[in-house]
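Batch manifest, entry 17 of 40.
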Amino acid sequence: MPLEDTLYPFLKIYDTFPFGIKNFIGKCYRYLPSRWKWGKEYPAFQRLIRESLEWDEDDIQEYQLKHLRSVFLRAQANCPWYQQQFSAAKFRPENIRTLEDIAEAPLLEKKDIQDHLEELVSKEFPPSKRLYITTGGSTGVPVGFYLQKGVSRPKEQAFLEGMWQRAGWTPGSRMVLIRGHVTTNKASGNIAIYDATRNWLLMSSAHLTSDRIPEYLEKIERFKPDFLHIYPSAALQILEYLEKSNQSWRIPLQALLCGSERLNLPQKRLLEQMFGCRVYRWYGHSERAVLAGEGQSSELFYFWPIYGYTEFGPVDEDGYQEVIATSFHNHVMPLIRYRTGDYVKLAPPDIPHDYPWIAATEIAGREQEFLVSASGRKISLTMFNMHDAVFDNLYAVQFYQKEKGKAIFRYQPTKHFNPSQLESIKEKVTNKLGDDFEISFQKVEEMDKTQRGKHRWLVSDI
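Output type: structure tokens
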């Protein structure tokens, strides 16, 4: 078992250690061989990534068909929910001969995972091989699922690095992260924590006020990073401050790495002009069934054909299609024809491509949405993509705000929800919001939705 998976449950304990002890342990850990930290699957995925870049369309289809057949057959043999659904649809995995054959299989909805989690888990593996993760995704619909220990997280690391390399990343690159990390639950608290395990500087994305951005700039300039790994919304807040104060960005960067939120091309151009480097975008989700990123030179989003198999729903009136994904490699809990709730505009085939892969020009994922605290801090909704069990037994969650510093947390419970969970939810949400925010709770039967029928994380009247 790789150290990353073995030590993952103890991360919260590590975070409580004094800085000096954390720094010493983290630095020792950083210099361990990657194979020790990520396990034997990590270099195997690295090799697969390198080799697949040389494949033609026939090679790709051969790989995908082989893995699809394996996923479907193992699910049929070991997962009760798929056994029932395949039987009801009269779908026989052994008859898969082409990629198109899987279109006869039933779709998997988020609600199916919420209601039938244990029936989707494979009987082939003991509980010790599972790692439980939750996500709110881009929709505000909490979903809990299992990853495969020793496989899922090493795979994700290898593929992320494979994408970042297109923007110049190399092992050992210094990074400043301004994402969802909670550095303090106080409005006037510390904005940065040093992570010695990776030589990264973790900075809060919830304290980017005009009064405190100079503090951010000072710490970043002192750290001298190669990359900013940053929410697009956070990068745009820094850009706005620099423009309004008639300042320029002063630290040379190789790139901004921007994921988790939507960033359109006009915004990307503004960031590249201000920061003087490439802004690299990618799209993925916690379920690890689909991953896409910009190319070496192209700004199209290329869907990794060896990461999972991706289908697309009907074209809507705006030209978008839903992403439907089947996971590869996670045999503990395969996701088969999973409706992600995310929508993309596919690139026309006559546009030059960096790779012979399906590509998209636009991805309508999580928007740049904020709650506003009493002191004026903008708190990105992306921070509430919890990865523990706090939102378990809820069909959907949503924030409603009409006054700075106050919000209503709307929740739609399943039949398994216990009201005693509210105390834990309040503690976790309050920790993210900080001490200049009041939160109340409201049970609802239905949530406000977008025109496309997606749940909304935030309804704001500010």
